[in-house]
Amino acid sequence: MKIMIVTDAWEPQVNGVVRTLKNTTRELTALGHRVDLLTPLEFKTIPCPTYPEIRLSLFPKRKLHERIDAFAPDALHIATEGPLGMAARAYAIQHKLPFTTAYHTRFPEYVQARFGIPVAATYKFLHWFHKPSLAVMAPTPVVKSDLEKYHFTNVVLWTRGVDLDIFHQMDSKVLNTARPIFLYVGRVAVEKNVEAFLKLDLPGSKWVAGEGPALAELKSRYPQANYLGVLSQAELAKVYAAADVFVFPSRTDTFGLVLLEALACGTPVAAYPVTGPIDVLGDGGAGAMNEDLREACLEALKIDRDHARAWAERFSWAAASEQFAAHLKPLPRKPSFSEKSAAA
Length: 344
Fold this sequence. Notes:
Blueprint lengths: L1 E5 L9 H15 L3 E5 L6 E4 L2 E7 L3 H11 L3 E4 L4 H12 L5 E3 L4 H9 L3 H12 L5 E3 L2 H9 L5 E3 L23 E5 L8 H5 L6 E5 L5 H7 L4 E3 L4 H10 L2 E4 L8 H8 L4 E3 L5 H5 L5 E3 L3 H8 L4 H8 L4 H11 L9 H7 L1
Parallel strand pairs: 1-2, 1-5, 5-6, 6-7, 7-8, 9-10, 9-12, 10-11, 12-13, 13-14
Antiparallel strand pairs: 3-4
């Protein structure tokens, strides 16, 4: 099957959406599908206000139409609600083509945290955007239920996975600071609630890996913590493996791939009992969830690293990608020249 995926989230961004699409593309290709990604790299872009790492494509309509026509996909998937996603949605509706979409990020909660716009207003836009989609792919049952509360009627599950070859247990000493070592990995932005981790009174030392608009302020306010920039996956695996506890302070993530990456490296998780951690950790004992994040951190220190790894092995990108492919809706096939001739 020829699958076109349209996404506003792509390199140089380093986040769960980009990682999900990369791994899904790799697995779909291994399954024999041909995947074409339509990303902002092909367009003139401007930085997103307050978030320059995100590039917004300018006037993508004409080129997007040409690319879709040239590839002639069997299935069209719109991954994001940005300028490219909007243009692809308009194209599909104009040509009466079926398409699928995905809900990767708790965008309404992020917008409220950053700009104060009410959650209900943003959900209204999202409902409008996804309503024509024949399947809105959500990462967890909790997120699916949340969308249905906002009257989404076409929601299906598309879970996530982890690369168990890259992220694995190892003897790593790249974080050579006082034990126990508590680690956060991810975007450093207000919606990720990183400050909730940094202000905790914990023994040992704290590390933050990642970049984002809140990084400079947090560095100045919490200079006792240690900060790393964006790392390759191989470097990141060593960082996970060197930590004693992975701390996930976000209350707004839909899944949290970093949870699986940490667990795959044998590092137990401390988190709030909210969507994302609840869906990944469940009652498997590979992490500790508590409204008192400090207590969760201390409890996670008691978890066996082998158990954390075993829990991560339950999640595979191959299975997640097969699930994705099963939700795709085939586009009407244009008749070939020979078929047109025979009909005449």
